[in-house]
Write a structure and sequence with these properties.
Elements: H1 3-29, H2 32-52, E1 63-64, E2 69-72, E3 77-79, H3 80-83, E4 87-93, H4 100-114, E5 122-128, H5 136-145, E6 153-157, H6 160-170, E7 175-181, E8 184-189, E9 193-196, E10 201-206, H7 210-224
Parallel strand pairs: 4-5, 5-6
Antiparallel strand pairs: 1-10, 2-3, 2-6, 4-9, 7-8, 9-10
Length: 240
């Protein structure tokens, strides 16, 4: 065989290789399993990207509330144990307040509406800072006037000493009376919303404005959707 013949032999087989590869690709594409695998891959990539993103963390603050038992607007004992296992948001008002308290109640009503998708996982609790006048009957009338959902939002009153111990020593919120004129006293109290987790620990203080309501709802949702919520066996230990 001549040199020219031996060199031309390999080049003659190249079209055959190309045709063989095309046939293999055509046969692969014709199989339903190929398309199933391709679709699964296309779907899996964005899902993997979402899963790999950082999961929002709950607030770092943890300030454990002491046990308390007060009286609800229904006249029943109600305390920290009734709220265990749920995320809840607290505010502090008195029903005869003409200034900031109606605004706080309006914000809590907004939270009640916007947080309804959390269902039983989120509760609202309003503490009166004027228990001498805000009896269960007065609080019940106030709740009705403000379209409160009684199974999601509770109003609490009780002896003044118990209220002060819970609000001042527990929540670290101010409350009391100050003389505004000779013989005329006015009630003062904290005006922030407080987020409490499933184990009864304060997780944050929030202004009662648009930004504060949005943030407290966000943080409440994060806490409510934790795989191992505070107080559960697999929960992360609270910092010392």
């Amino acid at each position: 065989m001549s040199t020219s013949e031996s060199q031309s032999a390999p080049t003659a087989s190249l079209p055959l290789l190309g045709k063989s590869l095309q046939e293999k690709v055509a046969a692969l594409v014709a199989r339903p399993l190929f398309w199933i695998a391709l679709i699964a891959l296309v779907v899996a990539v964005p899902v993997a990207q979402v899963v790999s993103r950082d999961v929002p963390r709950p607030p770092d603050l943890r300030l454990q509330l002491p046990p308390f038992t007060l009286t609800s607007e229904r006249g029943h004992p109600f305390g920290l144990e009734n709220l265990r296992g749920r995320v809840w948001i607290a505010d502090f008002i008195f029903t005869s307040c003409p200034t900031v308290c109606p605004k706080l109640t309006k914000r809590m009503g907004e939270i009640q509406h916007r947080g309804r998708h959390l269902g039983e996982a989120l509760r609202l609790v309003t503490f009166t800072v004027d228990p001498e006048n805000d009896t269960p009957e007065v609080l019940a009338a106030y709740a009705r006037a403000n379209r409160v959902s009684s199974h999601r939002w509770t109003f609490l009153t009780g002896p003044l000493d118990d209220i002060e111990a819970t609000v001042v020593k527990g929540f670290k919120m101010a409350m009391g009376k100050e003389e505004q004129a000779p013989g005329l006293f006015g009630i003062f109290h904290g005006e922030r919303l407080v987020l409490v987790d499933q184990a009864g620990a304060i997780r944050g203080y929030y202004d009662a404005d648009d930004a504060g309501v949005t943030q407290i709802l966000r943080d409440a949702g994060i806490l409510a959707n934790l795989k191992n919520p505070p107080g559960s066996p697999g929960a992360e230990a609270a910092p010392p």
